[in-house]
Design a protein that fits this description.
Three copies of one chain form a homotrimer. With 248 residues, chain A is an alpha+beta fold. Helix content of chain A is 15%, strand content 47%. In chain A, helix 1 runs antiparallel to helix 2 and helix 3 runs antiparallel to helix 4. Chains A and B meet through helix 2 and strand 9 of A and helix 3 and strand 13 of B. Strand 9 of chain A pairs antiparallel with strand 13 of chain B, so a sheet runs across the interface.
Chain lengths: 248, 248, 248
């Protein structure tokens, strides 16, 4: 038995909207405790870790553990058919061949997407000695990344006492986002030592794609180490890990 | 003399917006009683029947019967230049070569589109023994059709006592819109016997293209028979007929 | 020293948004009195004359005259990254290689675009004996031009006592915008003699591209003479000159 209902399914829609940018097919693990997935992108530069606990749902009825593979592009398209104010129910079709999404609002609409064979990856969480932790609004982070996109394909992220900086430099010019302690958009700045690392812009832009502008995002950083980007959800968690670019 | 004025020309704009999806050129018949057109689409699968009586206009001055052919793509483009709040006047240019649209608002703008030679088709209204009649809002019908579009190129429309269903099924998944007696979006459900028929989705989507989401639409159905789709207008009528898909 | 700050930089953004449609690279002259540029488009059919006096800025600090060349496409893209409510600072980077734009709002973002070598053109203001001067809102002018675009590639602009008309004619039909003395959208009509001239629509549409719909635009006209189009700015001026089309 797998059946669950969300009165406010926007969390799920936004999360899948970000994940689909990196991963096309994935296995979700449904257990009595909640839903989770963990996967690497095809280039193995980025990792996604997503969890929605049972209490993120208004009804949650999963009796046995079950692995369900779906094409995330199909899943995202189906979720995008949901209208604001509609309630979402997820369940498995009787013959086990489809994941059924039911939208309840002015009408009752049901979309079924094929359940496919995807092997669940064994992906263990990277252990990283982060030296800085930064909280900021999605809007400001996205602005900084889009500015950088105008001039370069990579971005340097730096944190030091009192300051957080995203900068880029190229033939077409330069860009810089600077947040100082006290700025409203900087919700957290915890720096153990000066930290800087370089990343591919394309991946960062994909990770923030599903975020709403007022969402809070937590970045954990270490010099020349992978970053962890956590989207703060009311319940559950969505985290991305991204390998740094190391200059030759 | 052909001259008419509409203070709220949105009806005409929406109607032409739907018709142009099916028919590129057409002859309109102007008589002292009103304007009408009836035509088959090039594939002869769909038929359009459109009528605006004289009292749908705020001024209506047509002394003699007249057939006027226009390219509907030109007509639709010209109508799309009209801004909300503007009043529309239609008339024939002095030399008889153009249909003139005058938009009156902050300024007075006039667009003329060529009158072309189109033979008026002899199209008689199909006589069909419908067994179900369903009224619903355009918004919900469009949702059901767009859901179906994600998984198939055709759609099954069913009506039975107490229930109306649009469903589709394909390799990419399944879709289903279900309305029950009592649902606000279901404005009418009159079923003589269980009724079902299959249709090409592409045509249905074109027919609803010009509808505003709050418009009421009446579907008349018979098992494996053509459907009639009527857009409820305050004055006048716009109906489409569409041949069913019959499985070999 | 070149440094200036605008609390409401929309004037600059809109002006560059229009100019970039005609001219790709340009030299700006910065003097203690203000910023200016004057240039011909590559086809030499249109001329731009732009001036922002020092008092159009909230802070203005230019000690010596300086010519700064930029790619206007880069400049426009950088300005388009500015969000409403943000304050803009312009300055030259320390090494003199970049024009720096700083946006201050929820965060502080800085974009640098390369300063390039552009020779300042010697362009003297055309001396034209205009016979009509017309003021109208950008919205109505744009409507008239877009109507014309549906039927032709050129447009006839006429002014006579009490009336201003933009019309076009082609195989695809006709268009006409007519404004009469007393119409709210016609802010000025000063006609010495009946005046008419024909222009390439493409250029006129580019010139109005950056205008906000409520902006006032002043057209100065002479029969078969170039037109002057002035965008009324609170401070400073943006003018375009456009050569007429003369029928063979």
């Amino acid at each position: 038995m797998v059946k669950m209902r969300m009165a406010e399914p926007k969390i799920l829609k936004n999360a899948i909207g970000s994940i689909v940018e990196l991963i096309e097919e994935s296995a979700f693990r449904f257990t009595p405790k909640g839903v989770s997935m963990r996967a690497l992108d095809p280039s193995r530069i980025a990792m996604v870790d997503f969890e929605l606990p049972a209490d993120a749902f208004d009804e949650y009825d999963v009796t046995d553990e079950m692995i369900i593979g779906v094409n995330l592009v199909d899943f995202e398209k189906a979720l995008s058919r949901m209208k604001s104010g509609e309630e979402l129910t997820l369940e498995i079709s009787e013959d086990g061949s489809r994941l059924l999404l039911t939208f309840r609002g002015a009408s009752t609409r049901k979309l079924g997407i094929p359940i496919i064979n995807v092997e669940e990856e064994e992906v263990s969480e990277p252990k990283i000695q982060f030296t800085a932790e930064v909280g900021l609004t999605a809007e400001v982070l996205i602005d900084g990344l889009k500015d950088a996109e105008m001039v370069s394909e990579s971005v340097l992220i730096m944190a030091k006492k009192g300051e957080f900086v995203i900068s880029a430099e190229g033939k077409k010019g330069s860009s810089e986002l600077r947040l100082k302690e006290g700025d409203a958009a900087l919700t957290k700045l915890d720096v153990k030592q000066n930290t800087s690392a370089k990343f591919e812009l394309e991946y960062l832009l994909k990770m923030v794609k599903g975020a709403s502008s007022s969402d809070e995002i937590i970045l954990k950083l270490g010099t020349d180490l992978p970053l962890e980007m956590e989207m703060k959800l009311e319940k559950g968690k969505l985290r991305f890990f991204l390998a740094p670019l190391i200059e030759a």
